[in-house]
From TrEMBL:
Family affiliation: Belongs to the short-chain dehydrogenases/reductases (SDR) family.
PANTHER family named in the record: BENZIL REDUCTASE (PTHR43008), CHAIN DEHYDROGENASE, PUTATIVE (AFU_ORTHOLOGUE AFUA_4G08710)-RELATED (PTHR43008:SF4)
InterPro entries: NAD(P)-bd_dom_sf (IPR036291), Sc_DH/Rdtase_CS (IPR020904), SDR_fam (IPR002347)
Single GO MF descriptor: oxidoreductase activity, acting on the CH-OH group of donors, NAD or NADP as acceptor
GO biological process, any: carbohydrate metabolic process
UniProt keyword annotations, A-Z: Oxidoreductase
Protein name, per record: NAD(P)-dependent dehydrogenase, short-chain alcohol dehydrogenase family
PROSITE patterns: ADH_SHORT
Membrane-spanning intervals of the chain: none
Keyword Aminoacyl-tRNA synthetase carried by entry: no
Keyword Oxidoreductase annotated: yes
Amino acid sequence: MNMLKKLFSLEGKVVIVTGGAQGIGKIVAEHIAAVGADIVIFDMQEEKAKATADSIAKEYNCKTMAVCVDVTNPEIVAQAIEKAAAEMGTLDLLFNNAGIALPKAALDVKPDDWLKVININLNGVFFVSQAFAKYLVAHDKKGAIVNTASMSGTIINSPQKTASYNTSKAGVVHLTKSLAVEWCSKGIRVNCISPGYIFTELTRNVPQEFQDSWINSTPYKRMGTPEELAGAVIYLLSDSASYTSGCDLIIDGCFTLI
Ligand code: NAD
C-alpha cells in the first residue's frame, strides 16, 4: 500500500455510523466505505437505513447492515451492538452522529421536548459509546470513536432559540474529553467534530430567513456540505490519529472566529 493510501485507509475495519440513514451520517458512511471499511448503520428510520446500507454495499462492494436502533434506549443499543458484532464478525470504529434539534424559546420549551433533545444528542452518544467500548474491552480490542458535536456546543449564535441543542452539544464536547482521558488506558481514542451550518435535511427545512442569516454570518458566505466533514471523520478514526484523543475539530467556515 502506498503511503497516501495507508495514511487514511480504513481497510478491513467495521464501522458503526449512528444516524446514518440520511444527512451527514449517510454521506460520511459512503466516504468511510470508499476507504475500505464495512458499514453498520444504526438509525430509527428502519426503511431508510436499510436503503442506505444496501446502496453503500452496491456502490462500494463492501459488507453492510442496518439495525433499527433508538440510541436513547441503552438496552436496545446493547442488543444492537451484539447483533452487529455477530453478523459482521467484529466491530472496530464508531461514528456517533445521530442527533436532532427542536428550536423553541427557553421560556416556552416543554419538558418532554427538552428531555428528547438531551436524550438523543447527549445520552444517546454516551449509551452507544459505552456499549461499543464494553464490546472492545471484552474482546481485548483497541478502537476509536468520533462524536458529532456542533459549534453550538462552544458558542451561542443562533437567531433561532436552541438552548436544549446548544446544551446537549456542549455536553458532547465535554463527554468526548472525559471518555478520551478515561479510556486512554484501554486503547480507545475518543474525538469529536463540531460542524458549523451544514446543508442537510436538518437545516434545509429551517425558514429561509434563518438560513440567510447563518450564511451572512459565516465568513465563507455559504453553508458547508456533509462531504466537507467526511475527511475529518476518516482521519480521526484512522491510525493516522493514533496520538490524537479528546480533540474537538471545528469545521465551520470560520464562523466561530469572528
Ligand atoms: P439529519 O436529521 O439529516 O440526520 C439525523 C439522523 O439521526 C436521521 O437519520 C435520524 O433518523 C437519526 N436519529 C434521530 N434520532 C435518533 C435516535 N433516537 N436513534 C437513532 N437515530 C436517530 O441531521 P444531520 O444534519 O445529518 O445531523 C447529523 C448530526 O450532525 C446531528 O448530531 C446534528 O446535531 C449534527 N450537526 C448538524 C449540523 C447541520 O448544520 N446539519 C451542524 C452541526 C452538527
